[in-house]
Amino acid sequence: MTGYTQWLSVPDVAEHLDTTPGKVRRLVEEHALLGQKIGGIFVIPADMLQDGEPLGGLAGTATVLLDGGWGLDETLDWLMSHHDDLGVTPLEALRWGRKTEVRRIAQLLAL
What we know:
The protein is an alpha+beta fold. Helix content is 48%, strand content 14%. The protein contains 6 helices and 5 strands, in the order E-H-H-E-E-E-E-H-H-H-H. It is globular and about 35 Å long.
């Protein structure tokens, strides 16, 4: 992953979302949140949370890439890496409401 990000454990994400760890795991299964194991612990980037909810547009964007044959690590790396066409990371663009633009780029990459 490029750049600095804060990583949260499943219990930490559950606290931020005011829900249970089981619900967080379901959100991961549904690709509304993505994460990876670091040091044997599954963690989720804090940037995937906004206002006590999973970041809007993330699930659809992740699904486009995953259905296009991308792996989870590759998808997570793309979401967290600076993209010249966006001027920011795709996660930042989603945070700013630029879902259509992010999804369009993801669709082109998944072809």
